[in-house]
Amino acid sequence: MYFYKFDGAGNDFVVVDNREVGRTFGVEEVARICHRRYGVGADGFMTLDRAGEEYDFEMVYYNSDGRVGSMCGNGGRCIAAFAFLLGLGERLRFLGCDGPHWAEVEEWDAERRRGIVELGMRDVAEGGISRCLDGWFVDTGSPHYVQYVDDLECFDVVGEGRRIRNMREVFPQGTNVDFVEELADGRLSVRTYERGVEDETWACGTGVTACALVSGKNDLVTRGGNFHVGFVKNGTGYGDVRLTGPVSLNFTGEWTFSAQ
Fold it and tell me: In the chain, what are the domain boundaries?
């Protein structure tokens, strides 16, 4: 299997073109591919599949634990860059697990193999943001709990994130957990514990989107890079939600499947 390794602000993915083969991937083999010691190493795995005539492709996303995941914002931006490199165009329409999306490769440096990609996210209906525990809950294609904290740099994101993520009485299906702090320049600093990765990731696209909607801020900072989130507020809902940030192609390679 020939693969491409991308990252969106440090949130990294193994991506393959699955249009011709149409292969189904099992939990154990995806988990092994994503394993950082025995595999390629990634926060997630994606296949670019055929879709209906109105779409350029379908995005199938797996968490690093090998299970099919919910929508991934940075994954969507990375697979759009992949589709661009496959010659499918700069402006793309694709199908994700949460419905249709569009994406645009705004910049691409062929020599450095990096650029800027904007992704159209799903709308958040009126009442879609609710108070929860000491913060807010919102579904931006994936479920997110957002909480303000002091001294985010020293905060125990993994320990506290894991505790909240596994509060089944509050989140029966689990949740991603975002901790935020407003910076002196007005931007919002975000750190995320991701469900399915079961660890902190360097960035989370649906997470920074959730944090932008909760805070009303457009410019956000993560450990892996900076994002801009555009949106239009409609009463207590949000439309025209757009996530923009960096994407890089790290390397390509081949994976040989074994019986292990």
Answer: 2-120+246-254, 129-243
pLDDT at 259: 52
pLDDT one-digit tens code per residue, 93-152: 999 999 999 999 999 999 999 999 999 999 999 999 999 999 999 999 999 999 999 999
* DSSP single-letter state for residue 259: -
C-alpha distance across the termini of the chain, in Å? 16
Of the residues 34, 78, 204, 211, which is catalytic? 204
Q: Which fold has domain 2-120+246-254?
A: Diaminopimelate Epimerase; Chain A, domain 1 (3.10.310)
97 a catalytic residue? no
Buried b (16+ CB within 10 A) or exposed e, 4-25: bbbbbbbbbbbbbbbeeeeeeb
pTM of the model: 0.95
Over the chain, what is the mean pLDDT? 96
Catalytic entry in 72, 78, 97, 132: 72
**What is the CATH number assigned to the segment(s) 129-243?**
3.10.310.10
Per the annotation, the verdict on 154 as an active-site residue is no
